[in-house]
Specification:
Elements: E1 13-17, H1 22-33, E2 37-42, E3 55-58, H2 66-74, E4 78-81, H3 87-96, E5 102-108, H4 131-149, E6 155-159, E7 161-163, H5 178-185, E8 189-192, E9 198-199, E10 201-203, H6 204-215, E11 224-227, E12 233-234, H7 235-246, E13 252-255, H8 257-263, H9 268-274, H10 283-288, H11 298-310, H12 317-335
Helix pairs in contact: 1-6, 2-3, 3-4, 5-7, 5-12, 7-11, 8-9
């Protein structure tokens, strides 16, 4: 095992790019709690409650050499970059951080694409379908090339879906919170393939704790590692928990996932991600961050969902209408196949 750095042995000056976003807030909290000096770089458009002592700076990555100048100015010991969306972004980060000892680049499990066999390992072939997933795979490939060429030992973290209070929760049939509006209205819960696929949600604070531990291990470099929840939850159970929390009857209705993806205006999320079990092999994470323990459970997901409903954040009405129409449309197709 490589050297484990604790707050009492070494404090780092850490630049977190994208530190005001959904995931970034949890990372910043964990790093600050570990005693590190944290600088958050963002475009400045997403205000966030950050711990006392955390300094914020603005950066616009699309401006030529802006990120390189920022890194040179701040001279961090470590960089965690959550804003690499494609190969070009990754190249910018690697160039800017060429003299930085510890670099962590955040990818996404979407880069793996749809995988029917679980648990998903880091070594499985990646075949993403969405523009986002393809972009993230480009990030990974750019860093792998740098490993091969010996120009970087950046750690790539393939991160699963992350949630926290204040951030919207997607449903199974769309990357949208309209399912919460359906639950609040007592409408049927429309699920794909009975909602048995397991969705993987990791709390931002847990993601932050794991990344802080990874940053503290000298061996956590030059590899790709999965970071996701150990407790994936079937969509059906997640929906039912929210209905119970609202005191509403749970009335699930199922439609075939493949058919539904074809019917929806945007079925990409269902095709690529939510119809499949999101279960990941975390054995490498266990080796690289042995002290990390996931602390949040399904009850916290329900708490966030109920809070969103109370705030009226219940998704796009048009998307919700499309989803609610699916069962009747499916029934009509079964009765009259010529309608398909």
């Amino acid at each position: 095992m490589g050297k484990l750095i604790t707050p009492w042995e070494d404090t780092l000056r850490v630049l977190v790019t994208g530190g005001t976003g959904n995931v970034g807030v949890g990372i910043v909290r964990a790093l600050a709690a570990a005693g590190h000096q944290v600088i958050v770089a963002s475009r400045g458009y997403s205000p966030a409650l950050l711990p006392e002592g955390v300094r914020t700076v603005r950066v616009e990555r699309t401006r030529p050499d802006a990120y390189t100048r920022l890194v040179a100015l701040e001279q961090p010991d470590a960089v965690i970059d959550l804003t690499c969306h494609d190969a070009a972004d990754a190249a910018v980060t690697l160039r800017a951080c060429a003299e930085i000892d510890r670099v962590v680049i955040i990818s996404s499990v979407t880069a793996a694409g749809p995988v029917a066999t679980t648990p998903v390992t880091e070594k499985m072939s990646a075949r993403p379908l969405s523009e986002y997933g393809i972009g993230k795979l480009g990030v990974e490939e750019t860093v792998r090339t740098a490993w091969t060429e010996g120009t970087s030992q950046a750690l790539v973290v393939r991160l699963g879906a992350v949630y926290r209070l204040g951030v919207d929760l997607d449903g199974q049939l769309a990357e949208d919170g309209c399912w919460l509006g359906h639950a609040a209205a007592g409408a049927p819960a429309v699920l794909a393939d009975e909602g048995v696929a397991r969705w993987n949600l990791l709390h931002a604070d847990d993601a932050g704790a794991a990344l802080s531990d990874l940053l503290a291990n000298d061996r956590a470099r030059g590899v790709l590692v999965h970071l996701a929840s150990r407790h994936p939850l079937p969509w059906r159970e997640m929906y039912e928990r929210v209905h119970q929390g609202l005191g509403r009857p749970f009335k699930p209705v199922s439609v075939p996932a493949e058919w539904a993806a074809d019917q929806l205006e945007d079925g990409e999320f269902l095709t690529e991600t939510s119809r499949w079990d999101q279960v990941f092999d975390l054995s490498l994470l266990d080796r690289l961050a042995p002290a990390y323990q996931e602390r949040s459970d399904a009850s916290r997901v329900t708490e966030v969902a109920l809070w969103l409903i109370r705030q009226g954040r219940i998704g796009d009405i048009e998307v919700g209408s499309q989803i609610q129409e699916l069962p009747a449309r499916r029934h009509a197709v079964q009765l009259y196949p010529g309608l398909a």
